Predict the 3D structure of the following.
Amino acid sequence: MDADLVIVGAGLFGLTVAQQAVEKTGARMQIIDVRDHIGGNAYSYKDKETGAEIHKYGAHLFHTSNKRVWDYVNRFTEFTDYNHRVYTTHKGEVFPLPINLGTINQFFHAHYTPAQAKALIQEQAGELAGTDPENLNDQGISLIGRPLYEAFIKNYTAKQWQTDPSELPASIIKRLPVRFNYDNHYFKDTWEGLPKDGYTAWFERMIDDPRISVSLSTDFFDSSQPFNRDALVGKVPVVYTGPVDRYFDYQLGELKWRTVEFKEQRYDEDDHFGCPVMNFSDSDVPYTRAIEFKNFNPERYEEQNHERTVVWEEYSRFASKGDEPYYPINTAEDRSLYTQYKELAGQQPQVVFGGRLGTYAYYDMHQVINSALMAFEKQIGPMLAQ
Ligand code: FAD
Ligand code: UDP
């Protein structure tokens, strides 16, 4: 084998490391991925019938306030001026999210000013005044009061996590903004957009270099193919972005994840929801949200079919072995198990564990790119220079 570095996983962590390593050191890279495409969970493809760009593993919206990351990604793709906005259906009525003055006034059939709405929510949240909420239920009530919490958070969260909100950590919804004006932008970051030619074109440009080889449908744990764990570790530097517990054959136990599944619907309509993402906050609808991919790219109007549309309904559940791990569940027990795996990982010769699976962390794309840039500077670059 003539590679100087083997990268397991062609997701954003692996691709960023490969791009940096070639650019900064001229080293030769071998990337492998068990899937039949690059891009990891951010992979997308064009739907032939409707012309929609389908995000195969769920809706991916790029956003960041990190100037270094924004400059970096703009080297490989231009971004559209897409701004993420989400709506939610509750008892047959559609409301804007995140909860803002529009949501509050519609819900209470009122015309409150910002100050009046703030006072009302404060009063409704008053039942928990002076406490420091530890679980999601109490956090939700103290953030927006019981009526709004019960309408928009309680059942949605129960569907998404299959766990009673009073048993979930408060941190899950701490990041949800509540606004006392009519601003319904979902993200607060400085930069936001979707890659102009799609995610896959962006990722292909990152590794468009003869010194980077990619082997797809190749499992690191399959000893019948040459790029496997037992053949490589200790002999060549490896960047591993698969699940950390899998690397160690689950010897300390399994880390817990949630997975999502999609059910596709096609309609003889140009536009089914009128927006890209519609949440469903009531328990009688079994899925959490529906994604209408065409609506992410209004600038592609000419290329799209306006008589058909494709929608994916998203169902959430606990992952078992064989499922795609999506969101780390992150109970205290999981955190402590991960700490033990991290210790084992630190003892592996010339192996760098990275990305969301390798470090059991929920990362957005900009965070995973940033962590790959840092890992290259601090660990991988020096390893290649030896
Ligand atoms: P991954 O993309 O998971 O890549 C890891 C790769 O390793 C995979 O391709 C996998 O096949 C490969 N691999 C694993 N095991 C092996 C093995 N044994 N052998 C070979 N290859 C292996 N981020 C945003 O910024 N905005 C969003 O809107 C957003 N939405 C999301 C929605 C959902 C439903 C999910 C799940 C995530 C979302 N994210 C979003 C997060 C985003 O997907 C991640 O930040 C990013 O894709 C992580 O990149 P990664 O390289 O760490 O991991
Ligand atoms: N949430 C909710 N109702 C909604 C949207 C979000 O209750 O309509 C809660 C839910 O608990 C979810 C959390 O807020 O897990 C974070 O939501 P977000 O959409 O930011 O996260 P994602 O599911 O995209 O990771």
